[in-house]
Amino acid sequence: MQKRAGFTLVELLVAIAIFAVLSALGWKVFDYLIKVKERNAQHEQKLANLQQAYQQILKDSIQIAPLASNVNGEIEPALVLQNDRFVFSKIGVTDPLLQGIPAEERIQYQYQADTQRLNRLRTRGLNAAAQMQPESSVLLENVEQFQVSVLNPNQLSSWPEYEQQQDDLMQKKRLPKGIKINLTVNGVAYEWIFSLLNTDYLEQKQKS
């Protein structure tokens, strides 16, 4: 009588055990790859947000202009850096539809340590009443530290440089040579330096 070929119970148990081990290893590898992909996506998004903030600050720095601002009847310097307040005048806004949008704006960077947000406040025009609310947008999140300095060419923690000349309109229109921003985002420290290209704007305007 011919014996029927097949697997014994022990062989089946061994095969099942091997299959279970391979499945567990395969799942761990698959789970690891998914987590790596998610981390890479988050890292890429953080870099994109950082680059977007850098480009916005770069654009603002290029358009900073020596134009004093009139806030509720009080003349304010073109650029103010006092007690962590950083505000400046800028030009370059276009109005292709001729809607009467002024070419000048007043910009302020406002850091909120409690929410770790860097906000950008924008007021259209250089003449503003006290009750006017600026347009606010989040420039960057997860900012653990933010500090602005001006370069003239020495590094200064405040501007205008000479307090006793604050009443002089020409002094209020002066700009430093550049600005330096130190910030820490997601545990990484950065130092950004920007040259102010419109420091001679007023002189060119007067000659034209």
TrEMBL record:
Instruction: Give a yes or no for keyword Transmembrane in this entry.
Output: yes
Indicate the principal place this protein occupies in or around the cell.
Answer: membrane
Q: Which PROSITE patterns match?
A: PROKAR_NTER_METHYL
Localization: Cell inner membrane
Q: Which GO terms describe its biological process?
A: protein secretion by the type II secretion system
Any one Pfam family here would be N_methyl
Record-given protein name: Type II secretion system protein J
